Amino acid sequence: MKHFLSSILISTAIMAQANNPFHAEFKTVHNTPPFNEITNDLYEEAITRGIELAKADIQAIVDNPDQPTFENTIVALERSGEDLNRVLNVFFPLTSALSDDRLMEIETNVMPALSDYSTSIVLNSGLWKRVKNVYDNRESLNLDTEDMQLLQNTYDSFALSGANLEGDDRERYRQLTSRLSDLTNRFGQNVLKELNTYEIWLTANDLAGLPQGAIDAAALAAEEKGRKGEFLFTLDQPVYVQFMKYSARPDLREKMYRLYMGRNTNGQFSNVEVMKDIAETRRQLAQLLGAKTYAEHSTRRTMAENPANVMDLLNRLRDAYRPALDAEMAELSEFASRYENRNVEIRPWDYSYYSNKLKNEKYSYDEEEMRPYFPLDSVVSGLFGLATRLYGLNFNENADIQVYHPDVKAYDVTDRNGNFVGVIYTDFFPRATKRAGAWMTAFREQSVGVDGIDNRPQVTIVMNFTKPTADKPSLLTPYEVETFLHEFGHALHGLVTQCKYQSLSGTNVYRDFVELPSQFNENYLTEKEFLDSFARHYETGEKIPQHLIDKLVAQSQYGAAYGCMRQLMFGMIDMAWHSIEEPMTENANEFETEAYSSVAIFPPVEGTMVSPQFSHIFAGGYAAGYYSYKWAEVLDADAFSMFKQNGIFDQATATSFLENVLKRGGTEHPAVLYRRFRGQDPTIDALLIRDGIKKPDTIDKTVRHSGETL
To answer: What is the pTM of this model?
Structure first.
């Protein structure tokens, strides 16, 4: 019987492997992932198999007896690991959008092997010799611009990842990268796990000030938990933001703030020691590779080029915005005291509440007043229409494309000539298996195959918008529309790209350039001509009134200094963690507080921190790179100023942006691409004017940057 059962188990395992859809190119519409066939149990085997096949690809390059050439070494390396990429391109997006305990377990299981595989490539001395041979002879190879960029990137990726290490240092590098992979994975999982533990149960007496939509959603959430008549609030971003903006109960605002900002600071899911270990591991890696700090190591291949240029930008923005922030906060404090008829000290949990009321008084503006004009379906049509008007793209839902969750929709994208451009998936609503925030990723990135076929991209945009209720569709705030515009900008960058190599296509650009297309899109939020194309009341069909558009435009500069200083705080915290030169012995909370002291808006609140939940830098790709949002903001303001000058839908300007920025990916240095579009280097003038910090006639025209250092 024992042998019989063993035979059954072996047969079942063999059958599962044979039926694993990841083992071959997907036989579906546009070769999109067959989500109806994919279960969690398929991933681990497919990843293990993919790693072995990828290793065989690498070994074939190393064992090639022919003289190293660009094709048989650099291009062959670029195209290696096809089976592994196929499964990872599905697996990792779903660990953020559709995760559960089993998927987290698989992620934990496979990360060491993936880290080891990645490290084994850069530490493969035979492969490195071939890459270096091609690189050393690059001037005689007659390569085009894109080929040369691929060669340069390949060489740099080896050189900056330990390829030159020898002896014990090579093994130490392998151990450090494996440890870092484990730590960052643990950090991200802790953030998601703890977020899902928070349930704030309130009664009808606790709801003062909250809009009816928020109350209805909380009632529905409670009813789904079997507690009809109560109200359930979570720390999901749209729920938290709305509560802090409208709740008239300062005690509950403080409670929510302390919970939200106290996440992952202690207990089972604490990230305090994890993040310290991450920073220390990165320090050791950087110094092993010849840099003083991880920030120095990380910025070598960026537009900023070094930490000094990063800090120069952050400090110059701090100095430019600090007087405006002081004026904003003084005005807000005076308003709050007048509103409450007593002296009010603005605390962090008070800012959104009083700021929203002051904004409403100054501009008679309330985001809730605008929600009815932004039903999600209309916003989708409006944003798709923006891409149609600017770039000639068309979007048609394709029900034959399988999706990973019932909330998800998939669309075919074509150009003005009917040519297929790619697929875009949209995933809008919160769920327990989705992390907070908003992002764009891809199930397949664009490249041209060895057969010359252009493999078009499959991108996805994931957000956490307010869910529809029984009697209302999902109605977005202007902030949520702005978020949609941002992620859609990333998606367009990934969709329209026309490059030969996957590692250079779409959003595979320097990270302080990658936010340009997304932040550029945000500029359209306050443009009447754009809003008139889709913003209509969900009940009456009435176009958004001119007076509401005027209010939206008028208040767009409101709080600009606060918003900038908050971003600078994040950037400085990031740079501090990644600028340590010695093992950190300081208290983590004190270290963080000191890092952002020069841009602090409020005194620190005991028991709260930013760092333990700062997934961008500790679990994402923005370590020593969060500054890039402000760096790119300088670029996007400068770029949009050209559209403002020529017309926001001017076809010549849009075509130049499409051809010289969006389509080119990382095939050339971004400064070169930007100059080709703009005809000149960017300046900070447009950002200062847009934010109302300076008037056009007071701008210092000498404040410029070369395209490589702001």
So the answer is: 0.79
